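Technical note accompanying the year-one report. For the benefit of new consortium partners, we illustrate the data format agreed upon in the data management plan: each record pairs a sequence with a structure-token string. No post-processing was applied to the example shown here.
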Amino acid sequence: MALGGLIVVALLAGAALYVPRYIRTHASPGSNGSQPSTAQPAAQPASSDAPVDISAAPDDAVPVNTPAADTNTPPVQATPSPADDAAAKAQAEEARRQREEAARKAAELKEAAHEADQMTARAAAVSQSLDNLRAQQARQGYGLRGDMSAAEELMKTNLQRAQSAIDQGDGAKAKEYLDLAQPQLEKLESFLGR
């Protein structure tokens, strides 16, 4: 009898230890709101080559073949092709060339504007002196020499065209007109003894 009681106590103690663990392990997720403590092995994804048995699946279940994501591999970065690399280099070279061209034109325009300002001031002084000379000669019944009058008109015309080119941002064209006006201005200054 003592032996039977000892066996019963041992069975109850074993059941007290084993049953709660068994209940926690096999409890359904919705029964007490807790998740199972032991992780179930993940189902192996079906390979894309293996046939899928649709008849064994429930009516609302749709079989999906999704490969397992490998979290250890780094993301693959697309390497630029040689053609893309060459195109990028060509674009960078073209942009650099355009910046240099814009800087050259800006410097050319600035220089032309400075030269035009100086020549305009000199031309105004020459024109005033020629007007005084014309007035003096007119009182004596004479007129200004024809070549000097023509040089003055050419000088004024080329200076006006140079200023117009500067206003339009064309430094090269302005320089051309200033180069045409320069000899006429020097000729008049020489005539006036300057």
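Partners are asked to follow this layout when depositing records. Confidence is low (pLDDT under 50) at residues 31-43, 45-50.
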